[in-house]
Recover the amino acids of this structure.
């Protein structure tokens, strides 16, 4: 290095010009330590405030260099206070951290050997620790993020949004329900392992199927843990279906087991897609859809229009910060905190506040999801709610608007009505009561009593009001109905006095307020007759007014506010008593009890909504009790404890006035004014609404189904009709909307003739008929697929047609359309099966042209349009369907397989071999189809024919047709041998089966007396049957699935009709 150079104030002493110059060949006269000296000067300037003049800078830096300072001990460990006062300005020495001063003086040592190196500086304790730096950087970053005017905020947010999502986040991000489900069955430390979801599902399946489940069939159960738990819940509700087992008859045989599998698959699909549990786990999505549909009808009957508010809104500046829960929040690219709707009313209040006159008069409803903060930090928790709201600019209509909202609540709760018999107090199911209060009235009374406006004393007094003052279901038992007052409990009075004194000593309630609070709680709880409660509150206000010593205008205004609010409450209770007719009511028994009546109306002054959406006026709740609530003695619990602690009550609806929330959302100034120079902004309208928890409504429907499930348990062994069998499933099937018909093939819901089934379904869709042609989880799909034999095709159906009919009967699907390609192509017709939804054991079938199919189904649907359950009865084919469904079967099936035939007088021993079971199943199916086939031939019905069907396993249709022709030609011989000889020559491939068929026909005809038999002399004996009867012989080929009909006259006058199976 070169000596005598460098900036004056930054160069080290060894670089000064009077230092010895570098000697040739001996290297530099100074080292990197000179840079350390310069670093000390720069570090000083960083901590010093900006210099005002060059002269000031020169003086301070010259003093800092310290040419006159005596050499000291090591600065890093010694005391620097004396040197700092001599080298630093006083302000600098008093404001800069001591570690920074030590470091500066250490770097400014005149002796280069005493200066630290860069490594020494980094290793010393004079530098801030890393965590302190990170905290400081974090605070600076937070300041930048929260400063909307910062230029760096947009850059930071852009970097966050451009950050690539890690694969582990993509894989693990899920809803709270799925996260919790994935941990089920894991053994905790020191805890016994519980059953995994898959183990629980297999156990439930074994119970339903009344036996072990084949492990080879469990491949269809590959699903996530939440779906497994939902399917298990659905199966556990239907556990009696396994007890019933094969107890059903006809088409209902094994129907409950099949239907339980369908409901479990629906629940599993819903859990996998939604990832949420709203109300009850394993609920049928069709039930939820039907509840929403019913709510839309109720809201529409009141003239409400479906209006949906925006999904996001900025976080309110007045929103209360809750310690637990709260709305789900997110941040956009501009750094604005947005909230997802926690209820459907807050977003509407913002729209009404900003809408002005455009939103001053309306009725609207909405059914949508609401979101709550996730417990695990993942996806927000979701629930489904419905909202009904009325907005009117004329505040004089408030009384009627409030009553209408409560009437809507009554109509919604009527959806839960069931035939549960008479309950206590002559009530009917559902057992519910109305909890009603007025927040402004309560605030005025607390002001009158002298309760401070702070949160702690007010909250404590409100808790006392809702616990001791408001009547609860428990208080009904101690109330003297028809008497003049209450049975006052001394222990209760002592408890109230104890709590009031505790409020004075602990919660900041003034001692002067104690006497007024004692007057307020003098008669607790209030009467279950709401009108009497209002009268008591009026008397209480008069007593409190008499205690006032002076006419203070502010105090008098509080009494005026309380009287005005009490008048609003009194008017509303009068309308409620008149229209809702609670069981505890002085208005008398109503003439029309179409809707569900509340048990009583509880006037609750302590009721508050946590989010304060409904605030500043009327606030009400509808709470449903179990039908067995009064069966056992209950502890004394308030309405709030009934919902939150014991769980005996369920809050399904909450409503009230939200005009105050609209006012808070109204922008300041002359907003929405027509003219800038005039104040023309719209006034705040009167806003009233009610929210319903759909998840809880669905849960109550399942509770009702569970009660029917218990009632039907005693009849499980003898349940043979659809009504009783539905009860065993434990699901509210009457509340599950489904399609009008299922389009299937002759073998069920397999993949055969899929294009033809789609053709028929598309025709039905275009004509407004709901139909389904695919087996899927929304309509009809079994949870566990059966294990197939090697001889069965992989695309074959899990169910037979009879089982399909039985499941449709239980699921209220009234029609099954059977599509056969040859019938659709040749005659443009299908088979229409009418499923008996209530009788349950039989069904009727007819052949319908594709052009008339939709009109037939729609016509019968209109006949039953007044029913709340989608059940149908035939109109166009009423007489035919009735005769088909009631007549006894007159068709027997004789099954021919190669050298053997089964049925008639040639039954083999009924072993349990799979081969025999398969034959028996085929014979019953053919008998059913033959009955339907004969029923469609009206001329045969009129002739009073009796029939028999011979089913051949492998012969072709054309071979059987020729056999029938030959049989009729040689009818005079009264033997099928000639028909066999002639047909076997033409079809040698089916010789064995045709031979067996001829033997079976000969034996059957002689046994029935249709043909004569030879005696020992070789003469024929006369036939014993009547000569006027006709016998219909049906020849059925299993391979082609077609019929050929031969009609034989007992008078040897054959009449034939060949037909394909339709």
């Amino acid at each position: 290095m070169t000596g005598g150079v460098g900036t004056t104030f930054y160069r080290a002493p060894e670089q000064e010009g009077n230092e010895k110059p570098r000697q040739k060949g001996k290297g530099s006269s100074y080292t990197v330590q000179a840079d350390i000296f310069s670093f000390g000067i720069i570090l000083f300037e960083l901590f010093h405030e900006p210099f005002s003049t060059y002269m000031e800078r020169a003086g301070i830096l010259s003093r800092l260099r310290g040419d006159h300072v005596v050499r000291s001990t090591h600065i890093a460990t010694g005391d620097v206070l004396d040197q700092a006062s001599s080298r630093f300005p006083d302000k600098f020495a008093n404001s800069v951290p001591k570690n920074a001063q030590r470091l500066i003086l250490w770097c400014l040592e005149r002796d280069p050997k005493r200066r630290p190196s860069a490594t020494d500086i980094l290793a010393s304790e004079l530098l801030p620790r890393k965590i302190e730096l990170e905290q400081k950087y974090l605070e600076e970053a937070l300041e930048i993020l929260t400063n909307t005017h910062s230029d760096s905020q947009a850059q930071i947010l852009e970097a966050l949004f451009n950050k690539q999502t890690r694969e582990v986040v993509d894989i693990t991000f899920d809803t709270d329900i799925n996260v919790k489900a994935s941990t089920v069955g894991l053994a905790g430390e020191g805890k016994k392992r519980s059953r995994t979801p898959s183990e629980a599902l297999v156990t439930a399946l074994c119970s339903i199927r009344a036996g072990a489940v084949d492990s080879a069939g469990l491949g269809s159960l590959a699903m996530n843990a939440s779906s497994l738990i939902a399917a298990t819940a659905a199966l556990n509700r239907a556990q009696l279906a396994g007890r019933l087992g094969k107890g059903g008859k006809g088409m209902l045989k094994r129907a409950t087991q099949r239907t339980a599998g369908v409901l479990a698959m629906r629940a599993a699909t819903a859990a996998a897609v939604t990832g949420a549990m709203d109300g009850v786990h394993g609920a049928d999505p069709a039930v939820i859809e039907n509840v929403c549909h019913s709510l839309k009808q109720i809201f529409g009957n009141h003239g409400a229009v479906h209006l949906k508010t925006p999904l996001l809104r900025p976080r309110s500046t007045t929103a209360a910060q809750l310690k637990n829960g709260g709305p789900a929040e997110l941040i956009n690219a501009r750094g604005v905190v947005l909230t997802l709707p926690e209820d459907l009313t807050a977003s509407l209040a913002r729209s009404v506040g900003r809408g002005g006159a455009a939103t001053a008069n309306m009725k609207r409803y909405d059914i949508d999801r609401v979101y709550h903060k996730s417990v695990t930090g993942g996806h927000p928790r979701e629930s489904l709610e419905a909202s009904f709201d009325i907005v009117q600019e004329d505040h004089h209509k408030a009384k009627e608007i409030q009553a209408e909202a409560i009437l809507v609540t009554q109509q919604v709760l009527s959806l839960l009505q069931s035939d549960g018999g008479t309950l206590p107090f002559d009530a009917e199911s559902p057992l519910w009561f109305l909890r009603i209060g007025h927040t402004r009235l309560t605030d005025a009374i607390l002001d009158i009593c002298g309760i401070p406006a702070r949160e702690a004393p007010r909250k404590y007094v409100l808790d006392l009001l809702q616990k001791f003052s408001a009547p609860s279901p428990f208080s009904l038992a101690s109330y003297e109905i028809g008497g003049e007052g209450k049975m006052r409990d001394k222990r209760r009075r002592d408890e109230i006095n104890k709590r009031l004194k505790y409020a004075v000593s602990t919660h900041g309630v003034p001692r002067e307020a104690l006497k007024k609070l004692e007057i307020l709680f003098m008669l607790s709880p209030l009467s279950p007759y709401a009108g009497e409660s209002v009268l008591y509150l009026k008397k209480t206000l008069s007593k409190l007014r008499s205690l006032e010593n002076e006419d203070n205008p502010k105090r008098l205004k509080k009494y005026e506010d309380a009287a005005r609010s009490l008048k609003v409450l009194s008017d509303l209770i009068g309308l409620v008593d008149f229209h809702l007719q609670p069981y505890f009511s002085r208005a008398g028994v109503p003439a029309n009890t179409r809707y569900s009546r509340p048990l009583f109306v509880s006037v609750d002054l302590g009721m508050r909504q946590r989010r304060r959406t409904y605030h500043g006026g009327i606030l009400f709740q509808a709470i449903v009790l179990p039908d067995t609530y009064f069966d056992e003695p209950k502890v004394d619990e308030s309405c709030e404890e009934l919902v939150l602690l014991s769980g005996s009550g369920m809050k399904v609806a909450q409503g009230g006035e939200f005009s105050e929330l609209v006012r808070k959302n109204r922008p300041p100034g002359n907003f929405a004014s027509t003219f800038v120079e005039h104040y023309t902004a719209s006034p705040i309208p009167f806003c009233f609404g009610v929210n319903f928890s759909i998840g809880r409504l669905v849960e109550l429907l399942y509770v009702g189904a569970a009660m029917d499930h218990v009632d039907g348990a005693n009849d499980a062994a003898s349940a043979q009709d659809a009504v009783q069998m539905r009860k065993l499933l434990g699901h509210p099937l009457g509340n599950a909307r489904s399609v009008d018909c299922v389009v299937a093939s002759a073998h069920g819901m397999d993949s055969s003739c899929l294009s033809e089934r789609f053709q028929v379904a598309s025709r039905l869709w275009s004509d407004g008929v709901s139909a389904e042609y695919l087996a899927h989880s929304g309509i009809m799909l079994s949870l566990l697929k059966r294990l197939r034999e090697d001889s069965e095709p992989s695309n074959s159906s899990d169910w037979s047609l009879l089982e399909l009919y039985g499941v449709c009967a239980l699921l209220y699907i009234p029609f099954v359309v059977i599509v056969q390609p040859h019938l659709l192509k040749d005659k443009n017709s299908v088979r229409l099966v009418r499923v008996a939804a209530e009788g349950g054991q039989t069904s009727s079938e007819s052949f319908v042209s594709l052009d008339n199919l939709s009109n037939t189904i729609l016509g019968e649907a209109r006949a039953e349009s007044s029913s709340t359950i989608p059940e149908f009865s035939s109109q166009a084919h009423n007489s035919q369907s009735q005769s088909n469904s009631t007549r006894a079967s007159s068709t027997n099936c004789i099954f021919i397989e190669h050298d053997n035939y089964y049925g008639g007088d040639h039954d083999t021993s009924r072993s349990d071999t799979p081969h025999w079971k398969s034959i028996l199943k085929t014979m019953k199916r053919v008998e059913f189809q033959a009955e339907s086939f004969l029923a469609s031939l009206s001329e045969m019905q009129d002739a009073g024919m009796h029939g028999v069907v011979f089913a051949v396993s492998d012969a072709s249709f054309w071979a059987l047709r020729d056999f029938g022709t030959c049989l009729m030609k040689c009818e005079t011989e009264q033997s099928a041998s000639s028909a066999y000889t002639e047909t076997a020559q033409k079809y040698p491939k089916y010789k064995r089966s045709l031979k067996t068929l001829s033997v079976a026909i000969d034996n059957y005809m002689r046994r029935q007396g249709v043909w004569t038999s030879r005696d020992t002399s070789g003469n024929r004996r006369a036939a014993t049957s009547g000569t006027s009867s006709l016998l219909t012989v049906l020849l059925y080929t299993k391979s082609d699935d077609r019929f050929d009909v031969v009609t034989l006259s007992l008078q040897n006058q054959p009449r034939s009709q060949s037909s394909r199976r339709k």
In short: The radius of gyration is 44 Å. The chain has a mean pLDDT of 78.
